[in-house]
Structure formats: C-alpha cells, structure tokens
Task: structure prediction
Amino acid sequence: MKGTITKRSIDALQAPAKGEVVLWDSALKGFGLRVRPSGEKTFITCYRPNGGGRGQPYRKFVIGGYGSPWTPEQARKKAEAVLLEVRNGGDPAAVKRELRSAETVADLAERFLSDHVEAKRKSRTAAEYKRLIYKNILPEIGSVPIHQLSPKQVDRLHQRMKGTPYQANRVLAVLGSMLTKAEGWGLRPLNTNPCARIERFPEKARERMLSASELAALSVAIDEYPSPIVRAALKLLVFSGARLREILTLKWTMVNFERGEARLQDSKTGQKTIHLPPPAIAILSELPREAGNPYVLPGQKANSHLVNLEKPWRAIRAKAGLDDVRLHDLRHCFASIAASSGMALPIIGKLLGHTQSATTQRYAHISADPLKLAAANIAERIEKAMSIEK
Result:
C-alpha cells in the first residue's frame, strides 16, 4: 500500500484481522507505517545495508510508535537520517540491535566484583563494595547500558544520597572505579568516566580528642567493667593506637614480649608492626591463655576471638560521661597526644600504620603547638641575651 504518510492518512488506516499492513510513503522511499491487528501503529524504515546494493537483504529499522511520541513529521526526519546513514555505508538497524544487547551497569558490576574486587581486595573491603553496589548503585542505574551512562544520571544518583554525604561519596568512588575498569576492558571509550565530573559532597571531619580529665574518667569506667577481656581490649586500644580489628584478631604467636611489638601478617594496609609500650605489655602479661585458643582476646565460642566491643563500650563511655566518643576515637587520642608532644608526623604515621602521609596530615594542626612553644622559648632566650647590660 502506498500513499503520503500524514496524520489524516494514518488515522484512516484500519487494523487488519491478521498479519500486518504497511503504508509506504510515496515521497520518501523506504519510509513506512506498520499497522497490526491490535491497532498498534509504528513508523519504520526499510533499506539494504552497505550502500543499498541489490545483493543485500532488507533490514528493518523501527523508529517508534505513532503518537508516542512520534508525529509523522518527526518520523520522516528520522527516516531521512537513517537512510542518509545507509547511503554513507552504515547499518543503523545492526547498530541498534548491538546497543540493545550491550552490557549494562549490572553486568559490569558482576564482572567488576568477580574479576577485580574479590581477586584483589581484602574480604572486608570486598563485602563493603558489594553492599554499596547492590544497595545503592544497581537499584538506580543497573539496567543502563554501560556506554550510555551519563554524568547527569550519575549526578542524580549522588544527589539522592545527599542526606548521607559520606556514604554518597563512597558510592561515587566505587562506581568511578567500576567505570575506569570498563574503559580498560573496552566497554567505554577512554577518558569518559562520568564520575570524574561530579563534585563530591563536603565531609565534615570528626576527630574527638580526649582531655586528661576525660582519660582519667574513662580509666575508672574501664576498671569497673566486670569482663577482664573487655578491659584488656580497651586498654590495648588506648595504649597502642591500633585499629579495632587488629586488636580483636591479635594472636599470641604475633606478640614478641622482648621486642615489645606484635607483627601482623595482614592488616588493612598489609603487613604491619604494632609497637607495644610497657603498659600494653603489662596488660598482655596478665592475661590468661585459653587452652587451644590462639587469640589473645578469646570470644564466647571455642577457639574464637572477641567479635564485638560496641555494647560494652556504650556502657563504659556512658559511665564515664563520654557519650559522643567512638571506639575509633581512642586511635585519634593516641595520635593527637603524640602530635601535641612534638613527635614528627612521619613517626606518628609509622606508629599508626598509615601508608599515605596525607592520612597523618590531619594531625598537623596539633603538632604546631610545640613549634610555637619552641619559638617562644628561643625568643625568650634571645630577649634575655639582648637585655644584658653592657
């Protein structure tokens, strides 16, 4: 059937009882409107690929449904663009079919987790990546083809999490890492990572330092807690500046009493030595060893370690009047006292097991105090020397 494709001619078309009817446009060869028994009307374009040679089979390019949102004028312009691409050697239908079968963000996530995260990241880090991906990323953009993901879509995901800025920035970082891998795997053009263009939310640093009186109150509350294992765990955190998991999973075989240190084969930053000062060594010396259990701080199950300090910690900090102090703040306390004592930042970084100097730099404002004191002492001595009567 041939005729001019207009709104009037389209509206006049009746649905066939079976099969389909196509109204081919008399002005633009290859442009047509397909009508099916359901009454559905769809604009299409038919062509031969590779410049339209007779030896090539016909290809059908579906433009879209009439009125949703395609008008005859819009569909005609699209058909002209498709046919121009064909004359230039293109195959729009094949390209469209390839795009439909392209890998999605969900496909990328599975490959990213199996080939990269699980193979190259620690188990706790891998678990956090999975949580962020399955909880935040995939529900929003999992069905989006990788090559089509835009800065606008990423920014929308980021903005929806503005109520939790730290979490939003972590999600952005994980997604950015996924898309960098996609570029390396040839799934996106190089240097097109949309996450690179998204401004991160400001994160307010929270570093709670403890005063001398607060440390004294904390000491009393710890000593009054009934469990000797909990008491030992908290004091080891205070005296070593170690991370919570490093203390909870500490084994007797790691501890060298003579050298005053514990050597970890694996930590958040790889192999690490925890330096144990005399108060920490004294605590360890007084701890009984549970037969058959390799851990310094045994848990409730056989041959296990202590797994949770949060509940006893909440009770202890409440008793000490320190409800805003987190367990991790004990590590900050260790570092801040070191900095305020005039200790060099690289030394503090070594004690804490930092692999990046920028991580230790947060304590620079504290370490400035002893410098001011030193400058004042020097100036005082100069002033005295200059005031001596000649």
Notes: The CA atoms of residues 188 and 249 lie 42 Å apart. The longest helix spans residues 364-386. The longest strand covers residues 41-47. The two ends are 119 Å apart (CA to CA).
